[in-house]
Design a protein that fits this description.
- 37% of the residues lie in helices and 13% in strands.
- By secondary structure, the protein is an alpha/beta fold.
- α4 runs antiparallel to α16 and α7 packs parallel to α8.
- Homotetramer.
């Protein structure tokens, strides 16, 4: 056993011990590997990190450390004062103003305002941050307004159906919960809030590789919700697993096999993250934390805690290379084989050329996304990519299902995407904001708002079934002016056909 005094002596980069759940861990060798940068660990060096660790990590994380890292239990003696990590204004939740009653929330933007007022600064920075100048983030929101709707009148719309087959699941509405990481930053129940809401509304929840609740617990929660509320909704939700391919292929096979064994029904492979984008709000928070910890000991500018990671067998470390930077089209067959039957979806398509190639690559669906504006700045919005596909290679829409996310805040946004051939529409940040303010009930309310807006819009459009929607219901002239020139794109597509 180790005393608190002994643990407190190991409070540096050279020797870093922390207390988690009454056990002492030597995490010195892991300091430079932590996704949040060295400061994320060093602020708790020699201290009790139990509260913050359990709030941000899924069960089983400690078991992934080498066994020798667990040095044994801590010994508490009378008179000891636990060296708890200091809570700073940057990591503690704000004292909120009077939080609006959930009943008064009228739209998804209302949830964002509440979350901004209540989340700790580090949580807000992580959820809201985007790449570089935020152009992609802003365009995701703005491009929806460049499409206008063309309603039909004098039609019997007394009964409407919002049902849609999403990722192999008979969903109650044409919406799914997009993959988002670290939901416990917003609420202690984290991703469980999303799983419960998915079951209650009978929709698909695509759980992130970086969920802060274990994937086994998420799967168990959606099963539990089905038992607690039997027959509440037909099907009662389904789970998809979002995959970042790790550097090691065999490790990737293992993750895929685990997802399959846990009952995840679809695999969403993210292909737009050979490196992470430069998310300045998040990186600024980490840099400020480093200054707070190291002070005058910082030498030079360094890389602001940004890691370089080497690919297996690679010559040079890759800046921000947290996932495989060597993933190629030729890898799709082994991923297909490892996953087996069931929907395989390629997430991160941003051009008509890649959409066309993906449709011929053996996947069941493509997922148009620029990662919420968090990867490449000045990337196209997903709705503009969908329009590009409509104009230059519409045959894609007949080969694979098409999903998208990015900037969706209204039921009319969903309708516009369906008019242009989308199978279903995902939302990420709005649900994080909803759970941050109100937990599971917030996500419930967000889904109800979306459902109501979609249903109302359908009736005002003069349609009673989503299958009736097509491009004749939407005016795309303004957004078309922003698309890549026809001449250059057609040349690029001809090159694809030659391949």
């Amino acid at each position: 056993m180790y005393t608190l005094k002994e643990v407190a002596q190991h409070n540096s980069r050279q020797s870093c011990w922390v207390i988690i759940n009454s056990q002492v861990y030597d995490v010195t060798s892991f300091i430079d590997e932590h996704p949040g940068g060295p400061a994320a660990i060093l602020q708790y060096a020699g201290k009790n990190a139990t509260a913050v660790f359990n709030a941000t990590h899924p069960e089983g994380t400690l078991e992934e450390l080498p066994k020798k890292s667990n040095l044994g239990p801590v010994k508490f003696v009378p008179g000891d004062r636990q060296p708890n990590a200091k809570t700073t204004p940057s990591t503690s939740a704000k004292e909120p103003n009077a939080t609006p009653h959930l009943h008064t929330i009228q739209n998804l933007t209302d949830f964002e305002a509440v979350a901004k007022d209540t989340l700790a600064p580090n949580a807000w920075a992580y959820y809201s941050s985007a790449a570089d100048s935020l152009h992609s983030l802003h365009r995701n929101l703005a491009d929806w307004s460049k499409l206008t709707l063309r309603p039909r009148v004098l039609r019997n719309v007394s009964r409407v159906s919002l049902r849609r087959n999403i990722m192999g699941h008979a969903s109650s509405i044409p919406v799914f919960i997009a993959p988002t990481a670290r939901a416990k930053l917003g609420h202690r129940d984290g991703e469980l809030c999303l799983a419960r809401a998915a079951a209650r509304h009978n929709i698909v929840y695509a759980a992130s590789s970086y969920s802060s609740i274990s994937h086994a617990a998420i799967a168990e929660e959606i099963r539990r919700e089905r038992v607690v509320n039997p027959g509440a909704r037909v099907g009662q939700g389904a789970l998809a697993f979002q995959l970042y391919l790790p550097h090691d292929k065999e490790a990737g096979r293992g993750v895929i096999g685990t997802a399959r064994s846990l009952g995840y029904a679809a695999l969403v492979v993210t292909v737009d993250t050979p490196v992470l984008g430069k998310r300045e709000a998040d990186e600024r928070f980490k840099a400020e934390l480093e200054v707070e910890i190291y002070g005058g000991q910082l030498e030079g500018e360094g890389e602001g805690g940004v890691r370089r990671l080497a690919e297996p067998g690679g010559d040079e470390p890759v800046l921000r290379g947290y996932h495989s930077s060597a993933l190629e089209w030729d890898d799709i067959p082994w991923i297909r084989e490892a996953w087996g039957p069931g929907p395989l979806i390629m997430k991160g398509i941003q051009t008509a050329e890649d959409a066309l190639r993906a449709a011929d690559a053996g996947v069941d669906a493509i997922y148009l996304s620029n990662h919420g504006g968090r990867q490449l700045d000045y990337a196209p919005s997903s709705i503009s990519t969908l329009l590009e596909i409509n104009i230059f290679c519409p045959e894609v829409l007949g080969k694979v299902e098409v999903y998208l996310d990015g900037g969706v805040r209204r039921g009319t946004d969903v309708i516009k995407a369906l008019c242009l051939g989308a199978t279903g529409v995902g939302l990420g940040r709005p649900f994080l904001y909803a759970l941050s303010g109100y937990g599971t009930e917030g996500v419930d309310k967000a889904l109800q708002i979306l459902s109501d807006e979609i249903e109302t819009s359908m009736r005002l459009m003069g349609v009673v079934d989503l299958s009736e929607l097509d491009n004749s219901f939407v005016n795309t002239a303004e957004l078309e002016r922003d698309l890549v020139s026809a001449r250059s794109l057609q040349a690029s597509l001809r090159t694809h056909h030659k391949l």
